[in-house]
Amino acid sequence: MSGGTFLGMPAFPRNAAAAVQDSQLRFNLRKATHTIRGKRASVVAELPDWAELRAAGKEIKDHTLRNLDRYLLQLEEAVTAAGGHVHWAADAAEANRIVADLVKATGETSVVKVKSMATQEIGLNEALQEEGITAYETDLAELIVQLGDDWPSHILVPAIHRNRSEIREIFQEKMASYGRAAPEGLTDEPRALAEAARLHLRERFLSTKVAVSGANFMIAETGTLVVLESEGNGRMCLTLPETLISVVGIEKLLPSWRDLEVFLQLLPRSSTGERMNPYTSTWTGAVEGQEFHLVLLDNGRTRVLADEVGRQALRCIRCSACLNVCPVYERAGGHAYGSVYPGPIGAILTPQLRGMGSALDASLPYASTLCGACFDACPVAIDIPEVLVHLRGKARHPRAERLGMRAAGWVFDRPARLAGAQRLGARLRRFVPGRLPGPLAGWTDTRDIPDIPAESFRDWWDRTDGGAR
Amino acid sequence: MRVALFITCVNDTLFPGTGRAVVTLLRRLGCDVEFPQAQTCCGQMHVNTGYPEEGRRLARHFVDVFAEYDAVVAPSGSCAAMVREQYPRLARAGDASFAGEVAETVPKVHDLSEFLVDVLGVTDVGAYFPHRVTYHPTCHSLRGLRLGDRPTRLLEQVRGLELVPLPGAEECCGFGGTFAVKNPAVSAAMCGDKVRNVAGTGAEVLCAADNSCLMHIGGTLKRQRTGVRIMHLAEILAATEATR
Ligand code: SF4
């Protein structure tokens, strides 16, 4: 489930080709994404000032990122003044060590977690396991993923690739080994499944003394953390345990409490297609009887910030709207992206955070047709196609492609060369096979190539003097 | 008005009929059409595949060729979007004089339907085409150029033509230039859905403003023996009773 286990996966095209063959997966994904897509579109259309809100969200985030150093220090001061402790983690290893040490200091060997992508990014659960600490996911979908020994495949709906009967099976088989077993005769009715999860989790909440959370936003001015969720499990996690450790990416900052107003409108509408979020929890420093630690995670973020074009990815509020409109995600599924950040945002964020050293990471900027649907849907106007193209410019290219592109460039450099190439193609047109070799075979497997005309347009123009003869 | 035709390398090489249709159509509407022979390619394939240097060189060439004209018309939403979106970005990484030339040339470049509706101010181009047609608004026409309903307004004025809506029209067909080669499985799955939607309309002709997407969808339509023909918007708009 961690970022770590994802590495070593084959490249995106191969993962996607396998996923495309899984008709159940394609059906589940299509149904789920199209449902949320429709809901999102209708609640967004309700707001006459959506474009202004979106622009405001973009501006606030850009301003914060430009002044990140200043606001982070302000946040640290405010959290400390409110009785919390702030820890700075440069990378995954450092963050995991900080959290493990904090948990060990409490003498506990288990923690409850409320959905946090940052801890998945750094592989916290696995790191804690090595120290003898068990982490229990409490978000329903995360629980399904954890019990199923699976990876999340969607930002908001991590178990989007599972259907009801699969979930029932997972509950029946695995719940007992994690705590309270699934009730006898569990059906695959959503109510029954939710009730089983509720009973299982309630026992967990009441007996666990340490919690690990993420946060959707951090407010520099007041030192407040904000979590938006829709099950109430988050609130249980945040309030019941004696020690709360929040691991948050440094880009989640907002300058002031007032800025939250914009995002409390943008996020629920973009993610779940709801007008308002069911549970919005905020906490500032340490409250009565509870100890509070904030681990500020960099893990590549300052490097992303240094890239003029790529930095806009840090505006992301993890709403998942881009996933739900992406035709490639819909067919390839979340696992193909090999990261906790799947879909269009994953295609630009993962290779920036991890670098493009692995075959998988180098293939991610190409996991898009550049159709632009993600950009249109994004509530903070991240120009995902722009960043994809930018990253492709930095990717290492296969030799054959490099030669081909150079050859094409050479032909296009002089119109006479282009005309010559066209004439050669026309002469050989009868010899073009129906199935092309090498990398082009993917094209002719399912498509006919067009007939090559006997005469190019420019030769026609020449011969007829622009149609005059 | 001195109008230059930017044919695009794909049309020039594989779809010369589209170019001839644009010439016929624009002349019928009173334009003085020129074809600057020095033109080659807008550089989209290079830029989108990750070769910005080659792309920048082609952008310079494009600007050199077309700077002197009042208007440049391209029968390709995707190439027009390339010029409009990417050239200013490419110029930003170049020298100041190039940025200036780009800023002057880019606003003169129009996709065909933009040119007809916005510059010439016509929607009825005097075409006749008695067939059932469905229109696919390719991604770059739709979200790059924001062509909106310009192409369908033009088609609605064509005598004899029955325009049938395409379900899931706004979804990408899976071409995406080199995407179709780099991610063939996903590309084919996307195109399969598109073809199912096209065939379901009962249209005889699938029309779009981009021959690249049409080539991709058309290749699948043909492989699956659906009998649906592909036609560029220009070819339908150029058709008259006399041409039949
Ligand atoms: S990139 Fe935009 S649309 Fe995608 S998850 Fe982030 S904020 Fe949402």
Provide keyphrases for this structure.
heterodimer; A: 469 residues; alpha/beta; 6-stranded parallel β-sheet; 24 helices; 10% strand; B: 244 residues; 4-stranded parallel β-sheet; 13 helices; 52% helix; binds iron/sulfur cluster
Topology:
The complex is a heterodimer of chains A (469) and B (244).
Chain A: H1 3-6, H2 12-20, H3 23-46, H4 50-66, H5 68-81, E1 85-89, H6 92-106, E2 110-113, H7 117-121, H8 124-130, E3 134-137, H9 140-147, H10 164-178, H11 190-207, E4 210-213, E5 217-219, E6 224-229, H12 233-239, E7 243-249, E8 253-254, H13 260-271, E9 279-284, E10 291-297, H14 301-305, H15 321-325, H16 327-332, H17 343-354, H18 359-363, H19 373-377, H20 384-394, H21 399-413, H22 415-427, H23 441-444, H24 457-464
Parallel strand pairs in A: 1-10, 2-3, 2-4, 4-7, 5-8, 7-10
Antiparallel strand pairs in A: 5-6, 6-9
Helix pairs in contact in A: 4-13, 10-11, 17-20, 21-22
Chain B: E1 2-5, H1 9-14, H2 16-28, E2 32-34, H3 44-49, H4 52-66, E3 71-74, H5 77-92, H6 96-105, E4 109-111, H7 112-119, E5 132-135, H8 139-144, H9 150-156, E6 162-164, H10 179-182, H11 184-200, E7 205-208, H12 211-223, E8 229-232, H13 233-238
Parallel strand pairs in B: 1-2, 1-3, 3-4, 5-6, 5-7, 7-8
Helix pairs in contact in B: 4-5, 5-6, 11-12
Domain LUD (chain A): 74-286
Domain 4Fe-4S ferredoxin-type (chain A): 313-382
InterPro entries (chain A): 4Fe4S_Fe-S-bd, 4Fe4S_Fe_S_CS, FTHF_cligase-like_sf, Helical_ferredxn, LUD_dom, LutB/LldF, LutB_C, NagB/RpiA_transferase-like
Summarize this entry quickly:
The complex is a heterodimer of chains A (469) and B (244). With 469 residues, chain A is α/β, with parallel strands linked by helices.
Structure description:
The complex is a heterodimer of chains A (469) and B (244). Chain A has 469 residues and is α/β, with parallel strands linked by helices. Chain A is built from 24 helices and ten strands. Chain A has helices spanning 3-6, 12-20, 23-46, 50-66, 68-81, 92-106, 117-121, 124-130, 140-147, 164-178, 190-207, 233-239, 260-271, 301-305, 321-325, 327-332, 343-354, 359-363, 373-377, 384-394, 399-413, 415-427, 441-444, 457-464; strands spanning 85-89, 110-113, 134-137, 210-213, 217-219, 224-229, 243-249, 253-254, 279-284, 291-297. A six-stranded parallel sheet of chain A has the order 1-10-7-4-2-3, sandwiched between helices. In chain A, strands 8-5-6-9 form a four-stranded mixed sheet. In chain A, strand 5 and strand 6 (224-229) form a beta hairpin. In chain A, helix 4 packs across helix 13 (260-271), helix 17 runs parallel beside helix 20 (384-394) and helix 21 packs across helix 22 (415-427). The longest helix of chain A has 24 residues, at 23-46. Chain B has 244 residues and is an alpha/beta fold. Chain B has 13 helices and eight strands. Chain B has helices at residues 9-14, 16-28, 44-49, 52-66, 77-92, 96-105, 112-119, 139-144, 150-156, 179-182, 184-200, 211-223, 233-238; strands spanning 2-5, 32-34, 71-74, 109-111, 132-135, 162-164, 205-208, 229-232. In chain B, the strands form two sheets. Chain B has a four-stranded parallel sheet with strand order 2-1-3-4, with helices on both faces. A four-stranded parallel sheet of chain B has the order 6-5-7-8, sandwiched between helices. In chain B, helix 12 (211-223) links the parallel strand 7 (205-208) and strand 8. The two termini of chain B are 29 Å apart. The model of chain B has no long low-confidence stretch (mean pLDDT 94). The chains are: A alpha/beta (469), B alpha/beta (244). Chains A and B meet through helix 2, helix 16, helix 19, helix 20 and helix 21 of A and helix 1, helix 2, helix 3, helix 4 and helix 8 of B. The complex binds iron/sulfur cluster. Iron/sulfur cluster binds at residues 155, 270, 316-322, 345, 377-380, 382 of chain A. The site of iron/sulfur cluster (SF4) has 15 residues of chain A, from helix 15. Chain B: InterPro entries: Cys_rich_dom (IPR004017). Chain B: Residues 3-83, 133-217 form the Cysteine-rich domain. Chain B: It comes from Streptosporangium brasiliense. Chain B: This is L-lactate dehydrogenase complex protein LldE. Chain B: It holds the Pfam family CCG.
